[in-house]
Amino acid sequence: MLVAQPGNADASAYHRMYQPFRQLAKRSRHLVQIPPPSEKGAPLPSPADLMETATDVYVAQRPASPHMARLWEAVDGKVARVYEIDDDVLRAHPSQNILQLTGAQRHAVGYLIATADLVTTSTPFLAEVVAEANPRVTVLENCIHERVLEMGRARRDRVTVGWGGGSSHLMDIAVAAEPLADVLAAHPEVDMHWIGMDFSPLVGRECRFTPWHKDVFRYYAAVDFDVAIAPLADHVFNYSKSHLRALDMAALGIPVVAQDLPPYRDLVIDGVTGYLVRSHDEWRARLTELVNDGAAREEMGAKARALAAQWTIQEHWVRWEAAYEAACL
Q1: φ, ψ (nearest 5 deg) of residue 214
Q2: pLDDT tens for each residue of the chain, 329 residues long
């Protein structure tokens, strides 16, 4: 029996917990239990709950409470405990208020990671960070559902540059805000579409804005970008980030202009599926090129989609199964 403890009902819980666990429930030989999405997260089971359901593996997503530490201790040696983490939460930037932890929470995270029977992460860099506390770590890279590859992206009459994400990405958007503002000012016929968080003030222009959808497929349906941006601040927290933003866009056939940092280098092939940029001048040049060249956008988008097809959960769910089985050994 595999029992999941997802975090809040957000994109992270979808990609790291709900999506793989649904595949495990459908395709694996194991019994799987995962609670429905909840704004407040799923309630903690008691040790008796786990014992009564004959739980073999308990997977908790980024727990950070002393209550979890007590549960961890109560089932030690009886249930394989897996700590799932996809952000370096102990080194979050001060601007990322939603990721800030209290002293007690930081202590709990450190303890839970160190004593887990297995830690699963989304990137090799984050695995190296975790390995300093616990060598029992496995990388399970983020994937997309194969259905996304079949979705027809919404098309508009006006060329649209777009970005999707939350308020914790302020430091990232700031990296590209100036050149993005310059390109938009030089091309009043081009739209900017923010999804999740409206950063219009940073580019000095009123832009289209769509609130975040908890249903990931409603988010995909709202994406009508011709060009996507993926700025990323050069901060240690971001080195552990995954390529998911670029993967989502690639799956929809959208070329990405991304910051040339490790998270994007395995998915954005410079000049083929999008562009990797390092400076404000490069941001301006590549965005200008793509908003003015529809043929280039279509060619890059098609190649990006073909690459994204290699990253489906339907192909890679077996890696989750293998990791959880190994946790019991």
Answers
A1: -65, -30
A2: 999 999 887 889 999 999 999 999 999 999 999 998 876 767 889 999 999 999 999 999 999 988 899 999 999 999 999 999 999 988 877 766 666 788 888 899 999 999 999 999 999 999 999 999 999 999 999 999 999 999 988 889 999 999 999 888 999 999 999 999 999 999 999 999 999 999 999 999 999 999 988 788 999 999 999 999 999 999 999 999 999 999 999 999 999 999 999 999 989 999 999 999 999 999 999 999 999 999 999 999 999 999 999 999 999 999 999 999 999 97
Give 72's contacts (C-beta < 8 A, 6+ positions apart): 81, 111, 112, 115, 116
Q: Which residues contact 243 (CB under 8 A, 6 or more apart)?
A: 142, 263, 264, 266, 267, 268
Phi-psi category of residue 141: left, alpha or beta, with phi > 0 → left and psi -120 to 50 → alpha: beta
- Provide the residue count of the chain: 329
- Sign of the torsion formed by the C-alpha atoms of 154, 10, 264 and 327: negative
Three-state SS for 185?
helix
Which tokens belong to 202? 């940073």
Distance of CA 210 to the CA centre of its chain: 19
- The DSSP element (H or E) to which 151 belongs, if any, is none
DSSP string, 121-147: ESSHHHHHHHHTT-S-EEE----B-GG
| Tokens read off for 82 | 């897996």
**Burial letters 140-174, b for 16+ CB under 10 A, else e:** bbbbbbeebbeeebeeeeebbbbbbbeebbbbbbe
Single-letter amino acid code for the residue at 304: A
Structural contact between residues 192 and 205, judged by C-beta atoms closer than 8 angstroms: yes
